[in-house]
Write a structure and sequence with these properties.
The protein is an all-alpha fold and 56 residues long. The chain is 75% helix and 0% strand. Helix 1 packs antiparallel against helix 2. The longest helix has 23 residues. The protein starts with 7 loop residues before the first helix and ends with a helix.
């Protein structure tokens, strides 16, 4: 990403999508582990989206 790869945006978008899907699935469950996982995945997706805009 720091080298300006043309694949950086694609990679970050894919990562955000995967994290969103994981967060959605984990949020369906009530265990503390799943709640923490969903929260971590949402934060990861947010950071990936920020990286997409930073690499434009």
């Amino acid at each position: 990403m720091s080298l300006g790869s043309d694949k950086a945006q694609q990679l970050c978008k894919i990562c955000a999508d995967i994290c969103d899907k994981c967060a959605n699935e984990c949020s369906k469950h009530q265990s503390e582990h799943c709640k923490k996982c969903a929260e971590a995945c949402r934060e990861c997706a947010k950071q990936c989206r920020q990286m997409v805009t930073a690499t434009v």
